[in-house]
Design goal:
about 15% strand, six-stranded mixed β-sheet, two-stranded antiparallel ribbon, about 55% helix, about 290 residues, alpha/beta
């Protein structure tokens, strides 16, 4: 699971502007743009590559995965906490093996964080908390691509739309690793060890729009190590989004669709799915 959040948050510091993760998808006279997003960025990552600005300028509507205002609201945070906290008197320690809990406690101690602060949280939320904490330690503290263009769209009077509801996003988070809490925590702790090294690699692939690299070194590894989460959070959602993406071609407006970068590559990625439907896909160059 962590590789998903890592790639969504990662961004490269320096790379040619013409090679970003933005594609033009067309059939006949109808066109949309599809871009890969990262939800956390660092100060040196702005301004974003030129292809993002090209797609934004040509679009009349910006389409995100979900309603960011709703997801960032206190109400959603409370709902997330309610669904991912134990309410039966148990703690995360009672749901993990002794070895896994000791490894988790050791990691928290190494960061100077009290393990008691997450004792009532379920593994899904603990995993996400660990990942975001590590990314922030590496300097990824600013708004991401999706938030940036959501705010810019409001200022420019462009329409905002979404591919799924906040409730659907919450359901995906709740389902992650639900049947294997030990595996989820162990997987997260193991990946955190190589986070700085992997972050650089993933940044580079995203910034260059290197779908082959993303597939071989990230997507295929993730699918092998955590097939059920890979299927639910990527493959199934890509297929769920496809009818929405196709519907955009029925209107004269141009949409700029921004989704997590790992939704783009591979045979089950949104770009390949659109190509299989007869649409032409080409990278946007600045």
């Amino acid at each position: 699971m962590k590789r998903i959040f890592l790639l969504l948050a990662a961004v490269v510091v320096a790379a040619p502007a013409f090679s970003a993760s933005v594609w033009k998808v067309s059939k006949g006279e109808s066109t949309i743009f599809v871009g890969g997003t990262l939800h956390l960025l660092s100060e040196g990552d702005y301004p974003l590559p030129t292809p993002y600005e090209i797609a934004f300028d040509k679009a009349s509507s910006i389409v995100l995965e979900t309603d960011l205002d709703a997801v960032n609201s206190p109400a959603f945070s409370q709902q997330l906490l309610q669904q991912l906290s134990y309410s039966d008197g148990s703690t995360i320690q009672s749901h993990l093996s002794e070895d896994t809990y000791n490894a988790l406690a050791s990691h928290f101690a190494s960061r100077g964080w009290p393990i008691e602060s997450v004792s009532l949280l379920k593994p899904q939320l603990v995993s996400l908390t660990l990942t975001i904490g590590e990314l922030q330690r590496l300097g990824l503290t600013l708004e991401g691509v999706d938030s940036h263009y959501a705010q810019k769209a409001k200022g420019a009077g462009k329409t905002l739309a979404w591919l799924e509801s906040p409730e659907q996003q919450l359901a995906f988070i709740v389902a992650m690793g639900e049947d294997d809490p030990d595996g989820l925590i162990q997987y997260t702790l193991e990946d955190i060890k190589t986070l700085p090294e992997n972050l650089s690699l993933m940044k580079d692939y995203w910034f260059k729009g290197d779908l082959k690299g993303m597939t071989t070194d990230i997507l295929d590894v993730f699918a092998k190590d955590y097939p059920e989460v890979y299927k639910s959070i990527l493959v199934e959602r890509n297929h769920n989004w496809l009818p929405h993406l196709i519907s955009f071609f029925d209107s004269p407006e141009v949409e700029f669709v921004l989704v997590g970068a790992l939704h783009l590559p591979g045979n089950g990625g949104v770009l390949a799915l659109l190509e299989a439907q007869g649409y032409t896909v080409e990278k946007v160059k600045g």
